[in-house]
Amino acid sequence: SRLEDLRVKLENEGLVNISYIVVNHQGTSSQKKFHLLQESVSDYITVYQQEEQQADVWTTLNGNKDDFLIYDRCGRLVYHLGLPYSFLSFQYVEEAIKIAYCENKCGNCSYTVPDIDGVCENITKKTDEKLPEVEPKPTGQHSHHHNPHRHRHHH
């Protein structure tokens, strides 16, 4: 339900057309709770139930339960946040979404829509100050997404 709150908050700030997907675990106990998950969010948030036979999505994505993977418009992974950064009581997920939405962190994307400038003007000013560099996961896989030159110039 916190994710739903965040979705509404971002939509009110003008961040629209974001897809939110919850991926439920394959295990039987998780499957039994599938409807509870669905009931805690609106129809705008997809709850995806993995089949027991399929390759586990979280394993494929090199992630864990409770991780947030945030992709840009071109389907590139901009942030992979694990606990404690994925607690929605903190700002990390919200800030990461805003950065993925507003900045070309992984290079230009042809799907960027021209009318986000107004929305993003206020956002980038704020996020530059607030978001600490989250340490990349030790796998080294995500390190190329962090632009080392970006946060060095603090005026």
From TrEMBL:
Tell me any Pfam family this protein matches. Answer: SelP_N
Entries under InterPro entries matching the protein: Selenoprotein-P_N, SeP
Which residue ranges does the record assign to the Selenoprotein P N-terminal domain? 1-155
Q: What would be an example GO MF term here? A: selenium binding
Residue ranges, annotated region (Disordered): 129-155
Q: Which stretches are tagged as biased composition: Basic residues?
A: 142-155
Q: Where in the cell is it found?
A: Secreted
Key word Isomerase present in the record? no
Q: What is this protein called?
A: SEPP1 protein
- Identify the species of origin: Baryphthengus martii
The UniProt gene name for this protein comes to Selenop
